Amino acid sequence: LDHDVAKAWLPRLVMVLAGPSTVLVTTCRCEAEAAGEAALLRRLGATPLMSSEPVAYVRNLFSAMAGSPDIDYDENGWCMAYLGGATPIGELLKTLSDIPSLCDAVAEELRGCQADAAERTAVKSPAVFWGIL
After folding, report:
1. Which pick of 7, 103, 106, 123 has the fewest CB atoms within 10 Å?
2. Distance (Å, rounded) from C-alpha 61 to C-alpha 67?
3. Rounded to whole angstroms, how far apart are CA atoms 76 and 109?
4. Could you state, in chain order, the average pLDDT of each consecutive group of 10 residues for the chain (133 residues)?
């Protein structure tokens, strides 16, 4: 998580999550981005609504790749839904005072997940190509 990007977007994200019973739905392009978003949102106290343990994101069946688990990169291929409002606004605002530490904590959490992801994607199915003539 880039510190400059986090400084730009975290204040907005905190205000969204501070609302009562806020539901935040996001999509991303790859599993690494999904894991990063999940780690950040957990740190901000958001509760995953669609999760299959131990991950808080799922493949998007309506993506261009039809939710194939063998695709590493897929626009809108992973989706997440979180419930905000559980963490008091004061605690959320405290996270903004030390964004580099928050980014470092998320990065540390992701290091532990990388080995698991590499193991799951070690075996790939052959590619299938199709088109319309």
Report:
1. 123
2. 4
3. 23
4. 87 88 87 86 88 74 67 79 88 90 89 64 52 58
